[in-house]
Design brief:
Helix content is 31%, strand content 23%. With 326 residues, the chain is an alpha/beta fold. The two termini are 17 Å apart.
């Protein structure tokens, strides 16, 4: 069964934190951050919840599709920073859209959440071609950043990206041609937020430790990320008989400009085909590809007739690729 992205949208907090702002908090510099990551600023929540950002992105996607919230039949929320363990964040997004009686579920594939959710939406549309699936990838990573750790606090930002997935071509009518999604848990220790889970339970009154925040072995993550995204993209192209010349644009998870450029180089893609907005938003985890796709649609970077390849990589480790036809 075909599945189409009928509308896209994104939302980020108004408050920005620049590299120069971070120079006042930790031992770092604008030059150090830009050289190693390409990031110049990030948007940081000031009291906005993951569900708040997600609901705003959802409204934008619905408007882009020319639909009202009542049309939505399913809500999928990709996040690793939910409002709470329970209730899940998808139900709170539904509540803020004044929706009741819909399936609403969270998915956690860390930074790969948007692509994992697109594939789940495809499955729902296959079961019921009349379904209208709201995919929201939303993160408030600032709530899990250790602002004393200069190796990680410079990387992350908050935001949400959303898409409306339907079984009938309407609105933007971007066809989801194919998806390849994979994982390998043996690398899970390289990028974690462990504190509070069943593996690291919290006792009442116990001080919050460093393991409640993002901890990462950046060097090893870089190597596995580049290798995994390159491989899955090559296999995606091969199984459709495509070469890099057949791609109009390439969108990788906006984690780090060096990673994005390294994957583009290994795929032999010209720089003008490699989309990047990490310099403005930082790493927004599950939201990053959704924000990139919505921003690129809004400014005309992506348009009718284009073939676009998305790829992602996240804690778990999870990774994957999705091929789109505009």
């Amino acid at each position: 069964m075909p599945a189409y992205i009928c509308g896209v949208g994104f939302h980020v907090p108004a408050h920005t934190v620049t590299n120069h702002d971070l120079e006042q908090r930790v031992d770092t510099s604008d030059e150090w951050i830009v050289t190693r990551t390409g990031i110049r600023q990030r948007h940081i929540s000031q009291g906005e919840l993951t569900s708040d950002l997600g609901a705003q992105a959802a409204r934008a996607a619905l408007a882009d599709a020319g639909l009202t919230a009542d049309a939505v039949t399913h809500i999928l929320c990709a996040t690793c920073t939910p409002d709470s363990y329970c209730p899940n964040t998808a139900t709170q997004i539904a509540r803020k859209l004044d929706l009741r009686g819909r399936m609403a579920v969270d998915l956690n594939a860390a930074c790969s959440g948007y692509l994992y959710s697109l594939q789940t939406a495809r499955a729902l549309v296959t079961l019921d071609p009349r379904a209208v699936v709201l995919v929201v990838a939303s993160e408030v990573l600032s709530s899990r950043v250790n602002w004393a750790d200069r190796t990680t606090c410079v990387l992350f930002g908050d935001g949400a990206g959303a898409a409306i997935v339907c079984g009938e071509k309407s609105g933007r009518g971007v066809e989801i041609i194919d998806a390849l999604l994979e994982s390998d848990g043996q690398y899970g220790e390289l990028l974690t937020i462990l504190g509070g889970g069943s593996a690291r339970p919290y006792t009442l009154g116990e001080p919050v430790g460093e393991d409640f925040f993002i901890q990462m072995n950046g060097r090893e993550v870089f190597k596995v990320a580049v290798r995994s995204m390159t491989d899955v993209c090559q296999r995606m192209l091969a199984r459709h008989g495509l070469g890099v010349d057949d791609l109009d644009m390439f969108v990788a998870h906006q984690a780090n400009l060096r990673i994005i450029e390294a994957v583009g180089k290994k795929l032999d893609l010209p720089a003008e085909k490699v989309f990047a907005n990490v310099q403005r938003y930082g790493n927004t985890s599950a939201a990053s590809v959704g924000i990139a796709l919505a921003e690129g649609c809004a400014d005309g970077t992506f348009g009718p007739g284009q073939r676009v390849l998305l790829t992602t990589f996240g804690s778990g480790f999870t990774w994957g690729a999705v091929l789109l036809q505009f």
